[in-house]
Design brief:
By secondary structure, the protein is an all-beta fold. The chain has a single domain, classed as GroES chaperonin (10 Kd Chaperonin, Protein Cpn10, Chain O). Helices cover 0% and strands 38% of the residues. The chain contains no helices and 8 strands. The chain has a 6-stranded antiparallel β-sheet, with no helix packed on it. A two-stranded antiparallel sheet has the order 3-4. The chain is globular.
Length: 99
């Protein structure tokens, strides 16, 4: 069984966060800041416009994205934590920097 987001929603898996500060202090879970970056696991079919047409999403499965701090809904499925958010909440798609 899998989760399939509806419309313009995106299912993401949060990136692992550091459990140590830059000074080497181990941080408890309650002190760790929620990451704002994640990998897209699944996307909906697109945003339904006023005229009834569907605009496909720019974000694709496998993309790494940045999103706002207080956006999305956290869900647990098969003992794994995910966040579901709308495409409007995505701030950027992270691309590899090529020299």
């Amino acid at each position: 069984m899998a989760i399939q987001p509806l419309n313009d929603r995106i299912l993401i898996k949060l990136e692992d966060q550091e459990d140590k500060s830059s000074g080497g202090i181990i941080l408890p879970d309650s002190a760790q800041e929620k990451p704002h970056m994640g990998k897209v696991v699944s996307v909906g079919k697109g945003k339904v416009l006023e005229d009834g047409t569907v605009r496909p999403l720019e974000v694709k499965t496998g993309d790494t994205i940045l999103f706002g701090r207080y956006t999305g809904t956290e869900v647990v499925f098969d003992d794994k934590e995910y966040t579901i958010l709308r495409e409007d909440d995505v701030l950027a798609i992270v691309r590899e920097h090529r020299k």
